[in-house]
Amino acid sequence: MGRKRGSAVIAPKPSIKQLNPYVPGRSIESVMKDTGISTLVKLSSNESLWGPSPRAIEAAQQAVASGLTFYPESDPASLYETLGRIHHFAPTQLIVGNGADELLELITVTYAGANDEVIYPVPSFSAYRHGTLMTGARGVTAQLTPEGAVDLEDVLNQVTDRTRIIFLCTPNNPTGGIIKHTAWESFLAALPDNILVVLDQAYVEFANHTEHLQAQESIAKGHPVIMVRTLSKIYALAGLRIGWAAAPDYIISPLKTARQPFSVNRVALSAAQAALEDQTYIQNVLSETITARQYMARQWQTRGYSFWPSYANFVTVDLKSDARVWAAKLEQAGFITRPASAWGLPHHLRVTVAPIPILEQFFAAFDAIGRG
Predict the structure, then answer these.
(1) pLDDT in tens, 238-271
(2) Degrees (nearest 5) of the Cα angle 209, 212, 217?
(3) Cα–Cα distance measured from residue 170 to residue 192, given in angstroms and rounded to the nearest whole number
(4) Other residues' Cβ atoms within 10 Å of the Cβ of residue 40
(5) Judging by beta carbons within 10 Å of its beta carbon (0-12, 13-18, 19+), is residue 351 exposed, middle or buried?
(6) Residues 326, 318: contact at Cβ < 8 Å?
(7) Half-sphere exposure (CA, 13 Å, Cβ side) for 300?
(8) Measuring CA to CA, which residue among 105, 101, 91, 108 is closest to residue 243?
């Protein structure tokens, strides 16, 4: 006789019970359903409202038209060649994945186990904690500096003989702070060689600071460093889910062994290739994004609100009251934003940088709510 339906016999391992489902920024579809508003601007997930390169769109359309019958390349040689040429890496130092998220989890699963410790900053991207708990490793948190960057001295204070991985996000999400080159070099020099440092640089293209760390140099010297990047932000291919990472060969090779063989689809590979080759378009988007970010900062300053100085494509502002209330009212005005309560910042609102005409409309709506 079988067991009674509903009896608790099969349970996940204890670390999985500590996980919380990822809560993304509100989608246009969900807000439309809740509010009935048909014209919405999404400023909650740091997607680029400039959109992808027309060449990337054309390449994606051609990939669909040419047929979806065959599996994609597991190791796309032409894409590795293009990435290597632009960023100065050998193909053996590169790996692609189904967004940066897959790569971050893959790194943790490959290099950490149940008796290990993984250090990550708080507040920062939730994927670091998620991947750590997936492996059963112990998560150890580090603080940020007042400028919203990872505090590398505090990270070093958390290192023990059980530390296997350190996650660093620069520019950091949701604060936008960066790690500077001098601090980075001192940090690497003080770190034991048996610890893997993961640099999440999803927003690095927006970091227009001459002192921002240069991960390529550290990788070229053979340091145990892996740089994780994405085509979801400045390249605006979030809907196709493609990211990439670079590290010394000895770090990349085990990742390729552990990775699912066909996790990046043919359409994404084609669009990524074309997007990377259109650097003129990307530089134009970068220039306009930085100008719009400066405009947004001035608008918050004019209104008397404080915020972290951001080197990403978002600004997180302290509204001094429940940000969820503001977000709900902004949705009614047609703008989707991201309350930072999930990061332990209940009064902060993260707003994606958008073209200035959109931001003008956003601040007009914000002011109307404030008067309301």
Answers:
(1) 999 999 999 999 999 999 999 998 999 999 999 9
(2) 135
(3) 21
(4) 18
(5) buried
(6) no
(7) 23
(8) 101
Residue 219 exposed, middle or buried by CB count within 10 Å (0-12, 13-18, 19+): buried
For Cα atoms 255, 120, 351, give the angle at the middle one, nearest 5 degrees.
100
> Domains of the chain (ranges plus CATH)?
14-51+280-371 (3.90.1150.10), 56-277 (3.40.640.10)
The two three-digit tokens of residue 17, written as one number: 């019970």
Helix (H) or strand (E) run with residue 139 in it: strand 138-142
The rounded distance, in Å, linking the Cα atoms of 311 and 325 is 27
DSSP 3-state percent helix, strand, coil across the chain (nearest 5): 45, 15, 40
Check: CB of residue 135 under 8 Å from CB of residue 274. no
pLDDT (tens digit, 9 = 90+) per residue, 113-155? 999 999 999 999 999 999 999 999 999 999 999 999 999 999 9
- At CA 89, angle to CA 78 and CA 70, rounded to 5? 25
Cβ within 8 Å of residue 1, ≥6 positions away: none
- Sign of the CA dihedral running 24, 361, 345, 137: positive
Chain position carrying tokens 């010394």: 248
Determine the 3-state secondary structure of 245 from DSSP. strand
52 in Cβ contact with 234 (< 8 Å): no
Secondary structure class of 160 (helix, strand, coil): coil
The contacts of residue 130 (CB under 8 Å, 6+ apart) are 19, 22, 105
Strands 338-339 and 163-169: unpaired
The position carrying tokens 């750590």 is 132
Rounded CA separation 23/341 (Å): 11
Amino acid making up residue 191: L
Q: HEC string of 67-84?
A: CCCCCCCCCCHHHHHHHH
- Is the pLDDT score of 16 beyond 60? yes
Half-sphere exposure of 34 (CA within 13 A, CB side): 14
If you search the block for the tokens 């062994």, which residue do you land on?
A: 257
